[in-house]
Amino acid sequence: MRLKLLSPGEMSAEQKGTYDEAISGKRGAPPAPMMAWLNSPEMARHATRLGEQLRFNTMFPAKLSEIAILVTARHWTSHYEWYAHKRLALKGGMDPKIIEDIRDRRTPTFDDPKGQMIYDLAKSLHEGHGVSQALYDEAVKVLTERGIVEVIGLCGYYTMVSMTLNTFEFGLPEGEVSDLV
After folding, report:
1. What is the C-alpha to C-alpha distance for residues 106 and 143, in angstroms, rounded to an integer?
2. What share of the chain is helix, strand, coil (3-state, %, to 5)?
3. Spatial separation of the C-alpha atoms in residues 165 and 99, rounded to whole Å
4. pTM of the model
5. 35-58: pLDDT as tens digits
6. Distance (Å, rounded) from C-alpha 72 to C-alpha 122?
7. Taking a C-beta distance cutoff of 8 angstroms, is the pair 38, 67 a contact?
8. Domains and CATH numbers, the chain
């Protein structure tokens, strides 16, 4: 870990306010990257609010949101992010085979057209740096424009999360080993 994470007693008033707001939200605990972001308390406040919105309040159930998050974690080889969201994906009902395929950079088979579309959009955003007209047109039909915006938000936010976790070398909980190579 490249950064000393502050305990609540070591935080400035502004940092502590952001921390307290985060733990009073739906997560009940501070998200790991926020502890690094607290070096910029106002950024941490806004990023954490955005993360809560994207994690809990999109039009997608967890089973679908986690597709975009896992594609992003795999793209960035973010060990901590993968560890955290693999568990959430399983808890949300995602087929373990889909998780395995994303981990191994194989295209999964989905029984839900929305899941397939979220995967296709996330892959295109990360690998193609955008979306073709044909994929966009199909995504509007399957997900609506709101859905496209929310997939972009998930990929963008979790890119920032992955970059933070990777830059500061957040480790996995003791005894855990990364699935990613």
Report:
1. 23
2. 65, 0, 35
3. 20
4. 0.95
5. 999 999 999 999 999 999 999 999
6. 7
7. no
8. 13-57 (no CATH), 62-168 (1.20.1290.10)
